[in-house]
Input
Amino acid sequence: MKNTLKYGIIILIIVTLIPFASGIKGLSITPKASDNKSGIIKSNEKVTDNKDNSEEKLSAEEIEIILAKVMEHITESAHTETKKAMIAICKSNYIYMKEQGETNFDIDISKYSDDFLDELINLYKDNEYSITYKGSLVPIPMVPQNGGYTSTSDEYPYIKPIASPWDTFSRTYIRDAIYPCGVSIYGIGYLCENGMTYKEALLWYLPDFDIN
Output
């Protein structure tokens, strides 16, 4: 902070709450059958998100919204475990926001590749992908990377200051920048590429959470 003030520049990296950025208003989506590019999920298909059927079922359009948010933040070349981690966060955040009454989201699935979407659909079907804090869904903020440690915030008291030194390897890392509270997308990718499962990577940044 001292160095930042010395040069008179405060760089703020915008936090992204996956799947929906806080403060964005007036977003909307009108799901259509043609929005379902992959053909793997049929327009009237319901996918069970919990093997014991205790959790609500999401429609094909809702699942595509979740996966589109994943594709907004990682590339097709990302590690498979990274993709799983992102699916887990995006799904948990989507269901949380839906429960809060947020149902209109601006999603353009057509700009992403069919192959990438198909891969994510198959990964989605393979796992339950549930992230809860003390038994409840909470919004999980994310940032492209942190400054070496996860920042904390009164808004997200369950996000702890977690060491994330590999963030300094990111091409977009800025020394002495002010990073908002959020789980590091780059950090999750780094951990998964270096041998962690998606659950292990998520537990690194969210040690007080239950990950499935």
